[in-house]
Amino acid sequence: MLTHLPPTATGSQIAEVMRRDGGVIVDDLADHAQLDAFFDEMRPWTERTGVGQDDFTGRNTRRTGGLLARSATARDLVTHPTVLATCDDFLGHVTSYQLHLTQIIDIGPGSVGQQIHRDQWAFDFFPFPQGYEVQCNTIWAGDDFTEANGATRVVVGSNREPDGLQFDIDASVPAEMGRGSVLFYSGSVYHGGGPNTTDAHRRAINLTYNVSFLRQEENQYLSVPFEIAATFPEPLQRLMGYRMGAYALGYIDDLRDPLVVLDPDNPALSLGSFGTQTEDELRARAGADR
């Protein structure tokens, strides 16, 4: 079974269970009014989103992205302190992490179960070393999650299993949780959307984060128009990808910090700046990681 933690759980406590089990539920992290506001903001886009074209994306499942551009409430969920504290711990072995994707997953009535998979297979099925985590993911329950309505199913502990395995649905357990609760799960855990045998929709908000030296699944630079991104606070701009992925990765033109395109008058983003990491800091980190 999946462990449930209270909303007061710290990022390190959540990350500890994730490393052991691959996933953990934090109850009641968002209140219902916040979720109502989010879905109201997103309604113009969800109503015109088509269903998936194959069994994996779901032939009766709608997936609506671009949440940062379309919903002010989504920006609060993406930068929730508990989520970022968990990412800080779980992905603390790298220089930085970034927002990977933002998506509403609406599993419609009669939907079949999704193939059990690892999210990190999106990186061209690269066989990352066991125990080396590249994603910290969240699924926010937009409705109560039950086994009957398609709660995400998790093969508990499979984050410690070899790559390329196949599991049937009986090897997994449903992430049953109340509306506003959050399933935190690693990119290495085997999981999948469950079958929806009810006559109601099951809505989830999938917000995921990955290490910054890997490509984002959802291209945030194009999903979020420039004029909207320019209004965001700097921490969110950097989180969505306007930052260095590591030393020198992602600079623009004359070795400048990519954030300069959104804030050209910031003197800290000068010619030749690689951001906050100095050579001494990089050497110290390299030594600590040996």
Low-pLDDT segments, ≥5 res: 275-279
Report the portion of residues in β strands.
Answer: 15-25%
Q: What is the residue-averaged pLDDT?
A: 93
Q: What is the makeup of the main sheet? A: 7 strands, mixed
Radius of gyration: 19 Å
Strand and helix order? EHEHEHHHEEEEEEEHHHH
Strand arrangement within the widest β-sheet reads 1-2-8-5-10-4-3
As a percent range, the share of helical residues equals 10-25%
Stated plainly, the CATH topology of the largest domain is called Jelly Rolls
Span of the ends, CA to CA: 36 Å
How many domains comprise the coordinates? 2
* SS elements, strand count: 10
The name of the CATH superfamily of the largest domain reads q2cbj1_9rhob like domain
Query: Oligomerization state of this entry?
Result: single chain
CATH architecture of the largest domain: Sandwich
Count of helix runs: 9
CATH level-1 class of the largest domain: Mainly Beta
* Estimated structural class: alpha+beta
Describe what this molecule looks like in 3D.
By secondary structure, the chain is of the alpha+beta class. It has two domains: 208 residues, q2cbj1_9rhob like domain (Jelly Rolls); 37 residues, no CATH class. It is 24% helix and 17% strand. The chain has nine helices and ten strands. The strands form two sheets. A seven-stranded mixed β-sheet has the order 1-2-8-5-10-4-3, covered by helices on one side. Strands 7-6-9 form a three-stranded antiparallel β-sheet, with no helix packed on it. Helix 1 crosses helix 5. The longest helix is centred in the N-terminal third of the chain and has 15 residues. The relative contact order is 0.18. About 2% of the residues have low confidence.
